[in-house]
Design a protein that fits this description.
The structure holds 2 protein chains of 2 kinds. Chain A is α+β, with helices and mostly antiparallel strands. Chain A has 4 domains: about 200 residues, no CATH class; about 170 residues, no CATH class; about 170 residues, no CATH class; about 200 residues, no CATH class. Helix content of chain A is about 50%, strand content about 20%. In chain A, the strands form 4 sheets. In chain A, strands 17, 18, 19, 20, 21, 22 and 23 form a 7-stranded mixed sheet that branches. Chain A has a 6-stranded mixed barrel with strand order 4-5-10-7-9-8. In chain A, strands 14, 15, 16, 24 and 25 form a 5-stranded antiparallel sheet that branches. Chain A is globular. Chain B contains 7 helices and 10 strands. In chain B, the strands form 2 sheets. Chain B has a 6-stranded mixed sheet, sandwiched between helices. A 4-stranded antiparallel sheet of chain B has the order 2-1-4-5, covered by helices on one side. In chain B, helix 3 packs across helix 4 and helix 3 runs parallel beside helix 5. The longest helix of chain B has 18 residues. Classes of the chains: A alpha+beta, B alpha/beta. Chain A: It is found in: Cell membrane. Chain A: One of its GO terms (cellular component) is plasma membrane. Chain A: It is a multi-pass membrane protein. Chain A: It comes from Pedobacter insulae.
């Protein structure tokens, strides 16, 4: 019987190619989306799982009880203190990794350097290819490099013993070992590992940017440690507002969002969003399947009736239809696997994820996929199976004309559901792109075109000559060296309390040379910008300390130090006449010479904070901004790089265009946007082919009606209107239904931006418009064939 | 074999009952060949459907092989379909996706007859109906008469005790029609299979041994056919 049913199913698949194709494409797309999602989620969840001790390793975080801000910059030696005081703590290590320029022979490489201690190899699982883990990094200035880097840097395979120089580090390092490459799913990257020489005594004045890790003894709950910490806060004089928190290693990638993560972490939020969206897409595909199966049952009524009178029980029929669904699902799943095999690397690039299908194949993913297929096949097959097996043979044998369940049937509910999802995705896509456009077009308060910016560089003494020659070039309008790392940090910040009313003030600081304001074209609203025409501006305040005899003399000079404030700072300090005011607050000292308009130096997620621009006349390190007149930016860039090479042969140059640099600040939003546009596209596509199939059956069922109407004088347009109207109603209803939910979610998302586009009606109306147009086109394309047919045939057939 | 007592079938519409069958009382014995005749809309097909348990009577008693059909559950009814009743339809109702042999095999599958026996029974039936060469064709590759032969073969292969046929030759030309009727008579006489057919044709009715005439839902005449 199974064999016969299989045969019938295959012949059905073959004989109804259009429906089969629509069903299969829907399922393939739906299942592929799910496979891709599973790949993505598995990747995100696999972070740091390669470590054998993953469940015992924790990173130390501090939480400030005032603003609940979580930080990983902690006093150095904290981990050691814990190891000595808390018996449950087994081992500790420090670890920090950042990108550095590496010089091997004459070649430059950009690699991740991890600074750590020898205990690193006890805690983290990093197998060594060459070298002895016990004695590694005993000596200062030694390095362990990854297999991958060893292959690129030393193709001859003689890495151990070689010397490597790191940009901005004075000494040469010797390679003493080679380790296996770290997996991509690691919260830090390391191509080179060296040891740090930090002091180990707990010191509250010496915050270290190097994160500290502890490994607990097996089976110890972190709560035990947090409990013991309570007693230690007093003993070690922790600041009252600071508490220590243990962040499990496995959660760092998805749950840790401190300002100093070593790699851009993901967010569990994204996992949820994508899971829900992928699930919705699978649902759309399932709905297509259900609706088309039921619609196609018009043709199968006879088969069902005959089988029933031959003694088939409803259960047998249900089994038959369920198996047919599974047949589709298995076919679709196989095709989806073939499709995703090639798609995963491509989409992985889009998502910033590196996974391959073969890398995903393990028992867990196999079971998950099987589970999804079994579940989805069941859901998709069950409803039609029940409906069809219930059909009364006396009806089906006399010419069954389709399943109708009341005026507003289940079919319509399912279609509304589909349209809701696709409308939701279109609305979100439109809203995200509205905000991205807003970001792109927003006047940030400084120029972003025709400006090149360097990475942080320690230029040294030669900078003055370099600057001199560069400024003389015709293409160069102006240049400026400052501590301003656009979008990431202004350079410094200070906070102080007003003694009278204990209000807290906070200000960011930029340390910049004379040309900062005009290079970035920041608007000065009061007073003046820095200028070499003023004596007070020509003093090297950074080095004034050594030239004066007394502290009073120093204070006197510093009181003349020119400072520019932004409007937010003027407002925060409540200055009515800011110009010529002398400020003396902790880190903020000097004389205000002017006020600049607020500019968005950080991402638009955040409000413009009070900012002071400090003059640093002879700075030799920082970020170089070059404003050019030239239209040909890349040739200017090449010219600057040429000159750079001449003056700083040992320092690799890294220049980017400011506007591209700024775009990187919104990478996660752009990623979200491109994902939503992809998902929305898939959803629309699925809805359209589903609709196409439904219209196919609708028209078939109404062939006679159409013919009669035609004979009575209905025009093609009348008939198209007739066939479209029922679907158009569903689309409008679905759109209206989804508006409140999408409005709420988009508003939530936009609230993440301090500067945001107004949430207008455009995404909503736009989505409605897009849905309507696509529905009209789909329905009309399908219907026009039948409508154009001569009515004679349809009428004669009866 | 079949006992009908006061069978009524009506549809109630806004308080008005429209009767299809009224006071139908009759009995049919094993081995009879009964033709049900009457004008269009008289209730012939409804009666046949009720006899075939495809429809339920609104009122009345129906015993099939001594069992009360009105009190019968679905499982029991399926059991009867599998073992005792064969249907033949005017529109043949072969399953388009199955070949001739597969169509004939289908009822045996539901009867859970082992593979070897199925094969021999199908071969037997095909042989008897002279259709061995056509066994791998699909229904749409056959003429109407041939399709109806397959339909009868399918009804017969499960070795039913009764065949219910709703205008079995309604779509056929007269030559083919006669061939089918001959077949029915042979089955009735040689294998003692009870046959109940609805027909419009006086000529076809003559193949049987009893004619029930229905008019306006009531049995008007019940006569034996004199040979």
């Amino acid at each position: 019987m199974f064999k016969l049913n299989l045969k019938i199913a295959l012949r059905n698949i073959w004989n109804h190619k259009l429906t089969t194709l629509i069903k299969l494409i829907g399922l393939i797309v739906g299942l592929s989306t799910v496979v891709l999602l599973v790949a993505y989620v598995m990747f995100e969840l696999s972070f740091d799982q390669h470590n054998v001790n993953v469940n015992e390793i924790y990173r130390l975080h501090s939480i400030n009880s005032k603003d609940q801000k979580e930080e990983i910059n902690l006093p150095s030696g904290l981990a050691e203190m814990l190891r000595d005081e808390v018996p449950e703590v087994n081992k500790t290590t420090m670890l920090h990794s950042h990108e550095v320029q590496v010089k091997v022979g004459e070649n430059f490489f950009k690699e991740h350097l991890a600074t750590t201690e020898n205990t690193f190899f006890d805690i983290f699982t990093v197998p060594l290819v060459i070298g002895d883990s016990k004695n590694l990094l005993k000596e200062a200035n030694t390095l362990i490099i990854s297999e991958g880097f060893a292959k690129t840097a030393f193709p001859k395979g003689n890495a151990v013993g070689q010397l490597i120089t790191l940009a901005n580090y004075p000494n040469a390092y010797q390679v003493v070992g080679v380790m296996k490459d770290l997996p991509k799913a690691s919260h830090f990257r390391a191509d080179l590992i060296t040891r740090t020489g930090l002091s180990k005594k707990l010191n509250w004045s010496g915050y270290s940017s190097i994160p500290q890790y502890i490994q607990l003894k097996k089976g110890v709950s972190p709560l035990v440690v947090e409990q013991r910490l309570k007693a230690l806060y007093g003993k070690y004089k922790f600041p009252k507002t600071v508490k220590i928190n243990l962040m499990p290693l496995s959660k760092i990638h998805l749950y840790s969002h401190t300002g100093s993560e070593m790699e851009a972490n993901s967010d569990i939020k994204y996992i949820y969003i994508f899971s829900v969206v992928a699930f919705f897409i699978l649902l759309i595909a399932i709905v297509n399947f259900i609706n088309l199966t039921i619609a196609a049952s018009i043709k199968r009524g006879k088969e069902i009736g005959v089988k029933k009178v031959m003694g088939a029980s409803p259960r047998q029929l249900r089994v038959q239809f369920l198996s047919e669904s599974y047949l589709y699902f298995i076919l679709a799943a196989l095709l989806a696997l073939i499709l995703t095999h090639d798609l995963i690397p491509y989409l992985g690039g889009k998502l910033g994820v590196e996974v391959s299908l073969s890398g995903m194949v393990n028992l867990k993913t196999a079971l998950i996929s099987l589970g999804i297929i079994v579940f989805a096949g069941f859901v998709a097959g069950l409803y039609p199976a029940i409906i069809l097996s219930r059909l009364m043979p006396v009806k089906t044998l006399k010419g069954y004309t389709g399943h109708t369940s009341g005026k507003f049937g289940f079919k319509n509910i399912l279609m509304i559901f589909q349209f809701c999802i696709s409308a939701f995705l279109i609305i979100c896509t439109l809203a995200i792109y509205t905000q991205l456009n807003f970001i792109r077009d927003k006047n940030l308060g400084f120029d972003k075109e025709q400006i090149l910016v360097s990475s942080f560089t320690m230029f040294g003494e030669n900078y003055a000559n370099f600057k001199e020659e560069l400024q003389r070039k015709a293409d160069i309008k102006s240049l400026s060296l400052s501590s301003f790392n656009i979008g990431k940090s202004f350079g410094g910040s200070s906070s102080w309390t007003n003694d009278n009313d204990t209000t807290e003030y906070k200000s960011d600081h930029v340390y910049a040379d004379l040309n900062f304001i005009n290079t970035l074209n920041i608007q000065v609203v009061k007073g003046r910008a820095f200028s070499d025409k003023f004596g007070a501006d020509m003093v090297d305040y950074d080095n004034v300390m050594g030239t004066v005899s007394s502290y009073e003399a120093y204070q006197k000079i510093i009181a003349q130090k020119p400072i520019l404030l932004n409007e937010a700072a003027v407002k925060a300090l409540n200055l009515t006449h800011p110009v010529d005011t002398v400020l003396n607050f902790g880190g903020l000292q000097g004389k205000v010479i002017g006020v600049v308009a607020d500019f968005n130096g950080m991402s638009l997620h955040h409000k413009v904070n009070p900012l002071a621009i400090n003059l640093s006349l002879n700075g030799m390190a920082g970020y170089l901004f070059v404003k050019t007149n030239s239209v040909n930016l890349s040739s200017t860039k090449a010219m600057i790089e040429e000159l750079w090479k001449k003056y700083f042969p040992t320092i690799p140059s890294e220049l980017t265009f400011l506007d591209t640099h700024l775009e990187q600040l919104y990478q996660s939003e752009m990623r979200l946007g491109s994902l939503f546009i992809t998902f929305a596209g898939i959803a629309i596509f699925l809805c359209c082919i589903g609709l196409f199939g439904m219209v196919f059956f609708e028209v078939q069922q109404r062939t006679k009606e159409i013919a009669v109407r035609k004979v009575l004088g209905a025009s093609i347009r009348d008939l198209l209107g007739l066939l479209n109207s029922s679907f158009i109603k569903l689309v409008i209803l679905a759109n209206l239904l989804i508006w409140p939910a999408s409005y709420y979610l988009i508003r939530e998302w936009l609230n993440g931006f301090y500067y945001r586009a107004d949430l207008s009606y455009i995404p909503f109306v736009g989505a409605l418009g897009i849905s309507l147009v696509l529905t009209l086109v789909t329905v009309s394309l399908q219907a026009i064939k039948t409508i154009r047919k001569s009515p004679v045939k349809a009428l004669k057939y009866e | 074999m079949i006992e009908l007592k006061n069978i009524e079938k009506y549809y109630a519409n806004k308080g008005v009952k429209s009767y299809i069958l009224r006071h139908v009382t009759t009995s049919i014995k094993q081995g009879e060949f009964v033709s049900i005749m009457g004008p269009s809309g008289a209730g012939k097909s409804t009666l046949l459907n009720i006899l075939g348990m495809l429809e339920e009577a609104t009122y009345g008693e129906y015993h099939f092989m001594g069992e009360d059909v009105t009190a019968m559950n679905e499982r029991k009814r399926i059991e009867l379909y599998r073992n005792h009743i064969g249907f033949v339809f005017q529109a043949y109702h072969l399953i388009d996706e199955m070949t001739v042999a597969e169509n004939i095999e289908a009822p045996l599958l539901y009867k859970k007859i082992p593979g070897a026996e199925r094969k021999s029974r199908i071969a037997d039936v095909l042989d008897r109906f002279n259709m061995v060469a056509k066994k791998d064709l699909f229904p749409n590759q056959l003429s109407g008469g041939q399709q109806q032969l397959v339909g009868i073969a399918r009804a017969l292969v499960a070795q039913p005790s009764i065949i219910l046929a709703d205008e079995p030759t309604g779509n056929l030309q007269s030559a083919q029609s006669e061939q089918i009727m001959d077949l029915f008579r042979k089955l009735n006489q040689e294998e003692n299979i009870t046959i109940l057919q609805v027909t419009h044709s006086e000529k076809n009715a003559q193949f049987g041994n009893r004619i029930l005439t229905i008019e306006d839902g009531v049995i008007k005449e019940d006569v034996s056919v004199s040979k």
